[in-house]
């Protein structure tokens, strides 16, 4: 089953996880005013096919289409937005962000439609939107219904034509392991509401699963497994309804946030076989040689959509959910106790984009009490900066629990790259810092147990490269200066450059 439109394989995003200065820029920080140029270069020079224009939790240039068409008209006249390349708005979720931000995003879509027609372009340039933190079909339907009502407004001063856009396609972004692993059920309900409310079925759907926030909330292992369940269920959904599903994943460079970099695309495509689109975040684009970035994007564009999903039986799914619960329980019990240390370090993480105040997932009722943590990039950066990668947390103890239950083979069957990922994590683990932390904090004692258990599971640690040795030295310095109350931001940047990602 295929849909008529071209489905992009690579979606560039504005996630601020890069350590180096972008190849086209003079500083690591990218302002809102500089993002239209970034969009243009992502298409023209790097070869990506989609760009996520992010309205969630950040300042945004609201006239993006007018700006890129005026500044790069010759390119976009031939390479048309909405036909050859795609811009997709990630909307603010109205249950979290108000202040008319949703309405302003809608007006941008409507204005873009009118602008395109006025300069002779036939396609609506903006026609899909991403809804973050989707938890129900009604949320999805209500966004489309609200857009349709706004598009129906007619007034002589608005000068809208009947051929302008009046319906947008929804991309639901699922961001916790329970929602992800049951997201096909949300799509079932949405399909009914869509047909009843609009009188037709969607031509296709692009369910979008997060990698960073579910890992922050439940740990790396439950997140990977939840996505595997979702992929298998999406395949069943598509066959059952005859509607193509093109799953998307929000992956980043470090294993905790997805493990995709220009140097790991083959392993990534194998791990997440069945995905049709992956995000390409800032570290992927700016922390690796440009030549490698371009080649990796070409490989993803050519091969990602050819991968076939690995099916999971109902019996296996039930066992996988047991594994997910084991790991998430251990992870959450530890993470709530080290939140103060993480928040202390997070104040020193350097900024890379303009952000508005953000309410993280731990601010909602997720069964974690009142614990609040920074955004996933800053969270990951904080722990890597002291040599305690978050992938460790709960994973070693979870592996020991699985071994006792004789369930390790099932985990390795469905988390294919687990050994490679964990070996890479151990190389950035500073055992001296972790041992010192464990002397005065029982929670870090638990993480030390995790690290030793992972070491045992892998049979040791591979020889470290000079860069990994230097990273360990710098994380020791960060830890010492943090205790002394010094500014650790310069050292955090040095460590991030070595691991090729802030967080």
Plain-language structure description:
- With 503 residues, the protein is of the alpha/beta class.
- It has 2 domains: 10-306, Alpha-Beta Barrel (TIM Barrel); 319-499, no CATH class.
- It contains 21 helices and 8 strands.
- It has helices at residues 35-46, 64-71, 73-78, 101-118, 137-151, 177-181, 183-198, 212-218, 220-241, 265-271, 282-286, 290-303, 314-346, 376-385, 395-405, 408-414, 418-427, 431-440, 442-458, 466-483, 489-499, and strands at residues 10-12, 50-54, 86-90, 128-131, 169-174, 208-210, 248-250, 277-280.
- Strand 7, helix 10 (265-271) and strand 8 form a beta-alpha-beta unit.
- Helix 9 packs across helix 13 (314-346), helix 15 (395-405) crosses helix 19 (442-458) and helix 18 packs antiparallel against helix 19 (442-458).
- It is globular.
- Mean pLDDT is 91; it is low at 357-367.
Main β-sheet description: 8 strands, parallel, barrel
Kindly identify the CATH topology of the largest domain.
TIM Barrel
- The fraction of residues assigned to DSSP E strands is 5-15%
Strand order of the largest sheet: 1-2-3-4-5-6-7-8
Number of E-state strands: 8
State the helicity in percent bands: 40-55%
Helix and strand arrangement:
Blueprint: E1 10-12, H1 35-46, E2 50-54, H2 64-71, H3 73-78, E3 86-90, H4 101-118, E4 128-131, H5 137-151, E5 169-174, H6 177-181, H7 183-198, E6 208-210, H8 212-218, H9 220-241, E7 248-250, H10 265-271, E8 277-280, H11 282-286, H12 290-303, H13 314-346, H14 376-385, H15 395-405, H16 408-414, H17 418-427, H18 431-440, H19 442-458, H20 466-483, H21 489-499
Parallel strand pairs: 1-2, 1-8, 2-3, 3-4, 4-5, 5-6, 6-7, 7-8
Helix pairs in contact: 5-7, 8-9, 9-13, 13-14, 13-15, 13-19, 15-19, 17-19, 18-19, 20-21
